[in-house]
Write a structure and sequence with these properties.
This protein is mostly helical. The chain contains 6 helices and 4 strands; from the N terminus they run αααββαβαβα. The chain has 2 domains: about 5-55, no CATH class; about 60-165, Rossmann fold (3-Layer(aba) Sandwich). Helix 4 packs across helix 5 (about 125-135).
């Protein structure tokens, strides 16, 4: 049993194979240090080989947000982001990031802007990064673990966009 809001079937299958591989190694190689065990099973290697065979060549100068738009056109309901907080489809990622990009444009963000943002790893951080790219700007991630004074100093650095805060 698993919670499909947290893991999809493919992730559960991968976890099953990792666990099976680890248990087999622990039983068959009891004297091997844990750091030398591999969770990669023959199934994982087959998966990687299959993925690499179907890999498409992406033009080098293609923007990430354009690739996301292409995916929205192909499979809007396919899951784009998996987090412990939930799942976003490509359509949801596109809609949310477009709304935020429009808001950023209204604030004056545009081509050549550098937008600092400070977020922990999350679906919302990805939405923010895609939105900033859609606004024709570049994002500058600030580490939330740094002291507040340091983050504020970096966020107000003179070369950043028009001294606006997100």
């Amino acid at each position: 049993m698993y919670n499909p809001k947290v893991l999809c079937e493919a992730q559960c299958l991968a976890l099953y194979h990792h666990l099976q591989q680890t248990v087999e190694q622990l039983l068959n190689q009891a004297d091997t240090p844990l750091g030398q065990l591999s969770i990669a099973s023959p199934w994982d290697l087959e998966q990687m080989t299959a993925w690499n065979k179907s890999a498409k060549t992406t033009p080098m100068h293609t923007c990430v947000h354009h690739l996301i738009s292409e995916q929205v056109a192909r499979a809007p309901l396919k899951q784009a982001i998996y987090t412990t907080q939930g799942i976003l489809t490509y359509h949801e990622l596109d809609t949310l990031s477009t709304q935020l990009a429009q808001h950023l444009h209204r604030l004056g963000v545009g081509s050549g802007s550098l937008v600092p943002f400070c977020m922990h790893k999350s679906a919302w951080a990805i939405v923010a990064m895609v939105a900033i790219m859609k606004a024709d700007a570049a994002f500058v991630p600030l580490d939330p673990s740094h002291p507040r004074a340091r983050r504020e100093e970096m966020a107000w650095f003179p070369t950043w966009w028009s001294y606006h805060r997100l």
